[in-house]
Structure formats: C-alpha cells, structure tokens
Amino acid sequence: MERLAGKIILLWGWRRALAAFLAGVVLVLTQAPYDFFAAGFVAFSVLVWLLDGATADRPRGLLRGLRPAFATGYWFGLGYFVAGLWWIGAAFLVDAESYAWALPIGVLGLPVYLSLFYGLAAALARLFWSDGIGRIAALAAAFGVAEWLRGFVLTGFPWNAVGYGVMPVPLLMQPVQAVGMTGMNVLAVFAFSLPALLAGRRHLASGLAALLVLAFGQVGFGYYRMSAPEPAGRQLDVRILQTGEDQAEKWNAERRQEIFRSLLEQTAAPSTDGKPRPMLILWPETTVPYLLTQDGGAVTALAEALTEGQTLIAGAVRVEGAQTDKPLYYNSAIAIDDRGEIVDAVDKVHLVPGGEYLPLESIFAMMGIEQIVAGPNNFEAGAARHPIPAAGVGLVPFICYEVIFGEELYRDVRSGDVLVNLTNDGWFGDTPGPYQHFRQAQVRAVENGMPLLRSANGGISAAVDSRGRIVDAFRLDAAGVLDATITVPNERIQAFGNPQINGLGLLGAFALLALGLHVRHRLRTN
User: Fold this and answer.
1) Could you tell me the residue range of the domain that residue 189 belongs to?
2) Is 258 a catalytic residue?
3) Which of 285, 356, 380, 447 is catalytic?
4) Is 166 in the same domain as 241?
5) Residues 311, 367: one domain?
6) Is 275 a catalytic residue?
7) 212 exposed, middle or buried (CB, 10 Å; 0-12, 13-18, 19+)?
C-alpha cells in the first residue's frame, strides 16, 4: 500500500489530473442506482494521496501555493459530475431539432461549474493539512463546507451530495434525522478517506478504530430507529398515477383529449386487489394538458371522475393575468375536491435555471434564445409554500427537484403531515437520473420523520414511510395506478432536534479538530 501511495503522491501534470478525474468517476459508483459504497474508499484514498503531493515548487503567496490542490480537487469533481450527471443531456434530445445544440451545456457546462466547489474543498483542506488523521479531518470538514455551499450558491444544486453514498438502504439512512445532509457529508468523506492511513503507520490504529466506530455507530443507530415501535397515526389510502407519457407527445394539441381521458379513467378505476377506496389521488408534475382555470369542461369531467370525499392533487400549469399581454405561468400542485372545484394550489418556489426560466433573460433574448430545455413556457417562481389540507392531513407539495434541498424542505414542512413530490422524470428516460432523484426524496422522508408520496411521469412513483421504507412503488418504466396505504403519524417527532443545526455543529467540530492537529503538526515540524 505504501508503494502505491508513493506512486500516486509523485504524479504530476496530466497524469495527476487524470488520476484525480478517474477517482471522481469511481466515486459515482457510490450513488444510485449502483449503490457500491466501497468505491468511496478507493476514490477518497486516492484523493488524499494526490493532495499529499499537491505542493507548489516555489510558492509565492498563499493562493499560488494552493493552486495544485485546487486543480486536483477540480479534476476530481469534474470526473464525479460528468460521470454522475451525463444523463441530463437526455432532456435536450426530447426535441433534438430545436435543442440538441445545447447538449454540451448540460453535459459539460454544469459539471465544469460544480467542480469549482470540490476544487475549493481541496484547497481549503490543504490549507490545514497535517500528517496522519489530521488531514483526513481537514478533508472531511472542507468537503462539508463545499457541499453546504453547493446547496444555495447561485440558487444551488446539491444533487448527488457525497453523503448519499453511505445511505443505500433505510437502515443506513437513519442518522440523517440527527445530523442532516451536512453531517452525513462530513462523516462520509471522513470514513471514505480513512483507508489512506494504510499507507503509513502513524495514526493507523486510531484511523481504523474511527472507521469501526462510524460503521457500527451507523448500523447500530439504524437498527435502534428501525426497531422502535411504530408511531401512533392515521391510515391514509392513496392512489398514485405514473403516466409514462412520451415527452415529445405530451404537449401535442392533437393528443390532449386522449391524454386527459386516460387520466380520468385511471382516477375513477376501481381499487386494485380489494384495497380501500383512495381518499387522495396524485397526478405527476404538469400532467394536466390544459389550463384548468380556462377550461370549464375539464373541471366538470374531473368532478365526474371523483367520488364523495376524494381529493385530487394534480401537477398543472397555473396562469395569472390570462387576459393581459403578458400572462404569468406557474408550475403548480393544484388541489381539486369532489365537486370539481379548485380549492388550493401551491406554486413551485425553486425553479430550474435554463429549464423553467432563463437567467439573464434579456441578454439571451437578444441572441434569440428563450429557453434551453424544451417545455410549454417559462415559469414564475411561487412566493411561498404551505400545506394543503386534504383527506384529514396536511400535504406539503414539492415539485420536481425541490425535494433535493434539505434545508428548504425542513423549514417548510413544520406545519405539515405528509411530504408530496410531484415530478416529471420522463425527460431523462432509463438513465441513473430518476434513480438518484428518488433516493434523495426517500432520504427527505427519513430526515424529517414524515411519510412521502411521490407521483412521477416516467418513474419512480412510490409511497414511503417515515423511516424511508418503501411501502409500494412502481418500477421506472411502468405506467398505471398504484394504490397504497400509509400511516401518517399523529405527531411529527424530531427526537434529536434540528438536523440542519446539528449538522453544522458536527462540521464545526471536525473543523476544530483539523485546526488543532494542524497547529500541533506545525509546532512539531518547525
């Protein structure tokens, strides 16, 4: 192991960049749908050794001295994000004639930007580098900072945060309720990097001990949470539609009636396998092929499809100021009661840049660019999110990728009972994207101690309990209705306080540990 580490430490130039890039590619194997968490030990051990050798020959100033470390982290991130997000390119091929030109922007542009955060993490870690386990703590704290920043800088995109790689099953997800994703990111990087200590005897015993403590602690905590008595609660019978509509046909005016008729038939169909009549019905994001407020016939048809006491939560486009020169469109979750009346709506707050709105729109308009990803229109952001009362519970809707923003979600669900995720993953076909999206939604249920109902066009639709266990789900390529019963706890229990605050506290503890060991190292070597 020492010989291998020595060869990696001495790499330079393009060989160092290639090694970092390939280590990032390997790290992707920890994420869904691969779930090979052992790959993280290889990826981060290589990164530690590369950073051991990331020193400038004649450093002049602090920033110049950190350039090799930044470059190493940047190439590591580029490998991770290119290999982990290549599937975004599928969205540009739905209407290839109009949008294929933008394929490089999605496949390479986003990873080029996101890699800056990992370059920052590597440079920050190298600033407090020491020997032995101290450098492992520095790297964990630095990546914790980088992943935290990735959640909100320039609207944020915390997709495939490192911490998801140590949570492939509900048993291992449970600690996220205590320390949030920030804490899980720190612990994951720390654990993944510890095998780098095998290349030297110093701190080897303490490193292996720390790894065993983390592993047994995660499994033990998961077992404790999973074996605890089920919370008292109400039973909620729900029907989830997974439509599987072809994105190229979805907004075809000639097919609107056919699509809508199919939705109504599935909504009104008898319950499957003798299950109770569902009181709540979910349609995926932007499923309704009409502007409901402008089509009285569609609303009437909905009233006929729903029976007494049923509520439909439908993903639809909502318009304001339809009679003006510039109407405003919203990507919304609309609640419709058994009389066919629209009783509530929640607009999507966190829009997708380039897909649902165009940043710097006036500049791009002069170039003739109105939107990067094919869609019916550009959307306005909703002002706020609130629970929708339906079927005796409070439903908190999150549309599409809003569900990946753990801090925002935790803030908005406090007065609700059930997480609802309406999404349209049909843009991405049979790629890793829908699996990764579902995994992050599943972790949100555990993090908040709340059940999750997910309706997706093109998969993966599911009912998930408050501990992340899948009650029932559709496979990715399925289409139809999913009837399920979930338990809605009478009281949302956060036994460990605010996981977002706890996670930042854990990050601070690792930062202090890294700083202390760095200072001791400098005093010993000077």
Assistant:
1) 2-227+499-525
2) no
3) 285
4) no
5) yes
6) no
7) exposed
